[in-house]
Amino acid sequence: MDALDGVPRSVLGYPVKTRTQIVATFLVPVIFELMLYIVLTTADILITVEHFRNGAPTWAWFTLTLIWLPAVVCFCSIVSTPERWPERIGFDERTGRFLFNQVAILVFFPLAALYRFSRRIFWSVEALFHDKGSYGRAQAVAKITETSPCELYHFLQAFLQAAPQMMLQLYILLRDGTFRNYDTVTVQVISVVCSFLTMATIITGYQRFESQKIVGRCYPWSTAEQATQRRKQLLRSTSTAVSALATPSIAPEADPIVPNIMRNFYSRYGSEGERESTANERVAVPTAEQSPRKTLNVGAFNFDRQQSKAHQDPYVNFTDDDKLQEFSGPPDTVDRAGSKSRPSGRSVSFKLRDTAEELEAMDHYLRSAEDVRGYATDDSDDEYLKPDGFDAVPKRPAPPTPEAAAGMFHRVSVFRHMLLFNAEAYIKEKVPRLPEGMFDHANPKEGSRKAQGTGDQTDGDAISLPSRRQTIVGLEQDDVVGKAVLFLGWVMFLLMRMLALSTFYVFFPLYFWMLVANHYLLMIACIVYEVRLHEKLERYFFYLFLAYMYVFSLLEFKIRFVHVRWWYVGYIGLVLAENVASLVLWYNLGAFESWWFYFLHHTIVASGSLSVLCFLFYYAFLRPKDKVLFVNED
């Protein structure tokens, strides 16, 4: 498997180099996330200090609690997972070390997050110095993509720290008398902006996670064993379209009549590699007892043009039979060039019995080929084999013509069975919760039909139709341009959503809680309807948290959307309707005199329009392609 498997190989349809893939997919996003994390954490800590200085301990404790909340939830999630504990039951050294590490990460969670970001940046830079396909490149990419519990903390930070912190600081900024301490206001604005960017980064990365997970992507916080097992299972149970549709090359069958002349030659003289290795061994370790060598003596005579022209083969006018009679004497070897007349000239030494055996093998092959031509069937090309007997009467009668009527009805019946099978498979795949026994053909009539269909398929006249193969359709990951446009769209969407909810809470707090509660319950109902009550019980608790995430944004996480367009069109339409309704209420019925609220009104309208335009442009031109995997048949 390629080390960069799953990483986009092109940008806007143009293929890019592997170093560009590493920079655009790993290095630049990690550096951006590191800068955001440092600024956001520093700003929240400064806000807490400023609230204590300004005599507002309630806001200070709220801000401090939101900073620690993602780390605490991440610690509880890791400790409560049995797969992360050591295999041995009981409290031993490994268990104590594991628990100590998790407590240390909980206490010093900013340092753990910085270490994770720094480690990924280091290996991203290291991967740039290695060539494509090298072991160093594969090892560096594996270090970049390795899983870590810090990724779970980074995911939870977007919804447990950034989102509520944004709502809290916007509410404090919009209250009366909050613009007196400009130092606090500056830090709050920085915190709100970084919270927007942090949420948009996480939402963009996990936008269609489940559709990408079924074709190879893993949870970045899963254990190393789980990730390895997931990859092996996917490789074992599925195959790509290229490997599934590729047909193996069919080598031509060897002619059984052709004698193995080359095999005999290699058995006597050895192959080229064996001769080289044997020569090296003889040079390295000379021995006294060696078998006779067949040599080709090359001297100055070989490079003299005049003497080489004068050289004549003494057996040039001999036939093969004459050579056999000439060489049937007792001498074992003969010098073809005449060693007496030219002792320094060219001489080739060979065994006469080997030449005789090769000539006999060639003669046997020619005679056997003639016999085969004599027994050739009518399918052979007689025009080239026997041109004289082209008009001869065929030796065998022509095969009988098959009955057309029976074959035609037989093919129609087979085609009908194939259509019924494909229709049943499509209904089983697309329609959930089918009635029991809907496609159970257990009655005698259907059983006889099935037996008849099976008998038809084994008939020699049956046509061979392609069968339906089960596929898994997922999504590839977005390229750098698609991620940039989608990131900008979610920044504008979150800006519209947060400003609309915050200003609405300032004027109508009761209606604000009613709106949020109704939206939350509606999201729970949609999630339960989507999963069709087929999920495990422990996931229902996560669906409560997922519905909370859907108050601010929508992402395909932990559940796969069956109707993706309906989900996104319905959600964006619902949020736009809620924002417009709240905007109309507080703008027309709210009592305000500051120009700040007029500015917020125009900002909400502009950001909502820009977000819709970004989403439409992304969906029309930049959305990732479908990735199809074929399920391997057992």
From TrEMBL:
<dbReference type="GO" id="GO:0070782">
    <property type="term" value="P:phosphatidylserine exposure on apoptotic cell surface"/>
</dbReference>
<dbReference type="InterPro" id="IPR050895">
    <property type="entry name" value="XK-related_scramblase"/>
</dbReference>
<feature type="compositionally biased region" description="Basic and acidic residues">
    <location>
        <begin position="440"/>
        <end position="449"/>
    </location>
</feature>
<dbReference type="InterPro" id="IPR018629">
    <property type="entry name" value="XK-rel"/>
</dbReference>
<protein>
    <recommendedName>
        <fullName>XK-related protein</fullName>
    </recommendedName>
</protein>
<feature type="transmembrane region" description="Helical">
    <location>
        <begin position="510"/>
        <end position="529"/>
    </location>
</feature>
<feature type="transmembrane region" description="Helical">
    <location>
        <begin position="59"/>
        <end position="80"/>
    </location>
</feature>
<comment type="similarity">
    <text>Belongs to the XK family.</text>
</comment>
<keyword id="KW-0812">Transmembrane</keyword>
<dbReference type="GO" id="GO:0005886">
    <property type="term" value="C:plasma membrane"/>
</dbReference>
<keyword id="KW-1133">Transmembrane helix</keyword>
<feature type="transmembrane region" description="Helical">
    <location>
        <begin position="484"/>
        <end position="504"/>
    </location>
</feature>
<feature type="region of interest" description="Disordered">
    <location>
        <begin position="320"/>
        <end position="347"/>
    </location>
</feature>
<feature type="transmembrane region" description="Helical">
    <location>
        <begin position="541"/>
        <end position="559"/>
    </location>
</feature>
<feature type="region of interest" description="Disordered">
    <location>
        <begin position="440"/>
        <end position="463"/>
    </location>
</feature>
<feature type="transmembrane region" description="Helical">
    <location>
        <begin position="599"/>
        <end position="621"/>
    </location>
</feature>
<dbReference type="Pfam" id="PF09815">
    <property type="entry name" value="XK-related"/>
</dbReference>
<feature type="region of interest" description="Disordered">
    <location>
        <begin position="272"/>
        <end position="291"/>
    </location>
</feature>
<keyword id="KW-1003">Cell membrane</keyword>
<dbReference type="GO" id="GO:1902742">
    <property type="term" value="P:apoptotic process involved in development"/>
</dbReference>
<keyword id="KW-0472">Membrane</keyword>
<feature type="transmembrane region" description="Helical">
    <location>
        <begin position="22"/>
        <end position="47"/>
    </location>
</feature>
<feature type="transmembrane region" description="Helical">
    <location>
        <begin position="185"/>
        <end position="206"/>
    </location>
</feature>
<dbReference type="GO" id="GO:0043652">
    <property type="term" value="P:engulfment of apoptotic cell"/>
</dbReference>
<feature type="transmembrane region" description="Helical">
    <location>
        <begin position="565"/>
        <end position="587"/>
    </location>
</feature>
<feature type="transmembrane region" description="Helical">
    <location>
        <begin position="100"/>
        <end position="117"/>
    </location>
</feature>
